[in-house]
Amino acid sequence: MKSKHGCGTGFSIAVSILSIVLITAVLTATGCQNNDRSVIPVVSGDPSWSIVSFSSCKVFAGITAAGRAGGRDCFAYSYDGDSTLSITHINAALNCAPGTITADIEFSENSITIGEREGDDAQWAHCLCLYDIEFEFTGVEPGACMIAFDEKYDDSGVILEALVLLEPGLSDTICVERTAYPWAMGEEGGDPYGELSGDSGCKARTSFLEKETDPSGSSCISYVYDGNGLLFFDHVNAGFNCCQDMVYASISIDDGTITVSEGEDPEGGLCDCLCLFDLHFIVRNLEPGTWTIKFLEPYVGEGDEAIEFTVDLLIAPSGEHCVTRTRYPWGL
After folding, report:
1. Whole-angstrom distance between the N-terminal and C-terminal Cα of the chain?
2. CA 130 to chain centre
3. Judging by DSSP bridges, how do beta strands 111-117 and 143-149 pair with one another?
4. Are the C-beta atoms of 278 and 237 separated by less than 8 Å?
């Protein structure tokens, strides 16, 4: 992949002390062709780049806290002294089913900004993972360069970046601390709360006239608890009107019970058919122990079994609970 620009001026004020010392030493020892000593020598040329490799999911917060990154988001770099710059982003956050990881790379006069992205073949799971992603840039000349990462799942305002000196034998690892998911658990000690994190959209449209049905005839809750306050769960085959572009849900947590109330947008319109959706939820700051999980659904009729079950998250941190439905739209 070919860049349109070299790497040049324009860098952040936030520079590591080590980088400043190294750059100052090189300027002192070698001199600078530009009489304005405030200008750092630029890295020019027309670099090309590629993703050499990326790891599988290192930390899936929905399954286990083992191996959690401790809130560190880092990049390591090395330079061969000629033209090849190697950069590894350690603990990059992307979706748990990212497909073939790619990146948006921006070059300015002496900066490289890297934005990792999920591939076109991403499956979009309802969780985030941490990955190690290795990049290689060729055609990069020696000098100073600001390396920065545009991270789509970080909204802290703390940018992983550093001004580095590309000279033979120089390498380093730069890190920032992150307190939010998926790097860390966020603020501790708060009250538990939950939210609807996404939905599949209509996946099986069932007409009142045609009586098309989902063959499973069931409505299921699958859940995973990470042991450190995060509970992920899906409602598989939730029933809503076909004309709902957006569904809603509220979660209340009280006296050992997690109650999920599902609903529709009153402005969304009503059609003469129902759809089956998969809904994705996250509950945060949830203490391990015994919890009753219950769902209030808009289209569960008289005689339908309600979803309500009790689990001990210490004994069974993951599992599934299903009810059989024979009424429309789940069954005939």
Report:
1. 54
2. 8
3. parallel
4. yes
